[in-house]
Amino acid sequence: MSPTQKKRFTVIALVVFGMSIATFLALQAMQSSIEYFRTPTQVANDGVSTEQTYRVAGLVRKGSVTRLEDGVTQRFRITDCENDVAVQYTGILPDLFREGQAIVTVGKFDAKPMLIASQVLAKHDENYVPNEAADAVMLAQANKCDEADGPVSY
Description:
Elements: H1 3-31, E1 35-38, H2 40-46, E2 53-60, E3 66-67, E4 73-79, E5 84-90, E6 102-109, E7 115-122, H3 131-143
Parallel strand pairs: 1-2, 5-7
Antiparallel strand pairs: 2-4, 2-6, 3-4, 4-5, 6-7
């Protein structure tokens, strides 16, 4: 191998190594921002991590919406007819939010596990809902699983 070929090989090897490191770092940075979609049944069966952000979709359980003393924090349960997930949200809920309504919540679970939501999306069309969420919500609406009219404990 001539000195020119060695120099080219060294430059190419350094470029490939640098690109590999950059790709690895980019993938690690994206990993922390991934939001996993779960249904309440998947949350109950598979468990959750308190470090990861999740999207949970379902129907707001009738009789489960309560407002805490601070006036801006609400607790409610979302269901897919098989299991429920307790949700706590601080802020103003969307205008379309109501009991029996299909919603998508985004947040992290605490140790209870309760989803501490950073965002609540009330379903008004299918534009933002993942296919799995739309299927879960349609199943829940078909089963009319929101018969619970009494308050739910958290």
